[in-house]
């Protein structure tokens, strides 16, 4: 079929390997066998298809090296070989013609450097090299790509620093480089990208402070900087990120207080700040957010009481305040957080009764261990009446009754910590 221009058999159940006679179809412009069960190698004869613009083999079981002859495909605009078993180095001048718009090689076992010719590919629109073993200095691999919208280089072994020239990729909306060995500071040029809505630099070796200009990323909705070596404080300018839905800065070396300006991030759905050295009280303003998913403040140095206002997060799924220095009671209003699936309060200095709702009573003991004196019907905790009444006089029993009453309606009571006893006094 030497006149064939389009060969499109994607999404079938074809198996076997690509015959080398494919090289006879010299007029081919579009070749797709994606989503089949193709095995074997990419034949060397592919280099004869010099008119080929689109080559899709994604989601198959193709094995081996990318043949060097592929550099002959100078008209290639869309190449997708993702999710196969390809390995080895890519030919260094792979997208030779400079017309390449999308290069999707994710989920293979490619290794070695990212082809140098990518640096000159000014037409690039979408790049996915994630989940391979590419190595080398990322600052040498890319240039200025004015059309680039989406790039995912996550989970490779890339090193080096982020070049300021990323700041000239003005159409970039998604930038993902998670799980590499990239170091240095976050260049503020990136933070000036006008259309950026997803930035994931997590699990790398970034150092330095979080640039204050982050507040300029007005379109950002997902920001993941977790698991780096970032220092300094969380800039109050984060409050300007009014579209932000996901913020993950866990496992860094951040210190200082949570800026109350975060309450302006009204779309925020998930907030993870665990594993830092953040201090001060937990701002009660966090209760004004729209968190549906996760609030994780664990492994920090937070002091003071659990703010009652957090119980306004009725739809929150997961709350983790463990490994802090929180004191006082668990506000009984937390019973109204009907969305909760998990609530870890372990390793604090909390005391008093665990609220009586079904959710709390069925909770695993691990959520409450290593506190100062929690009691209640949770399996493994001392029941409140026993721990408070054994060998105590009537007067003290009075206190206990008082105490238990308080726990039912804590909005109207405040606690005084007196000689290891919680005594509540009506404010009315
Ligand atoms: C690829 O191009 C080179 C010249 O650049 C040529 O020698 C070679 O035969 C071509 N390969 C194929 C398979 O067409
Ligand atoms: C990139 O383009 C420049 C000028 O067009 C050229 O001198 C250089 O050799 C090219 N680099 C690569 C890696 O193709
Ligand atoms: C941030 O990235 C890490 C991987 O580096 C991942 O485990 C974590 O789930 C991400 N956070 C969010 C909120 O998606
Ligand atoms: C809460 O966070 C700690 C430390 O960050 C973690 O070890 C623990 O598993 C988390 N708890 C839950 C219930 O996920």
Automatic annotation (TrEMBL):
Record keyword Nucleus present: no
The record's listing under Gene3D superfamilies reads: Ribonuclease Inhibitor
For biological process, the GO terms are: defense response; post-embryonic development; response to other organism
Write out the entry's keywords from A to Z.
Glycoprotein, Leucine-rich repeat, Membrane, Repeat, Signal, Transmembrane, Transmembrane helix
What do the Gene Ontology cellular component annotations say? membrane
Q: Where in the cell is it found?
A: Membrane
At the top level, the lineage of the source is: Eukaryota
In Swiss-Prot or TrEMBL terms, this protein is called: MDIS1-interacting receptor like kinase 2-like
Q: Which organism is it from?
A: Dioscorea cayennensis subsp. rotundata (White Guinea yam)
Q: Which gene encodes it?
A: LOC120257344
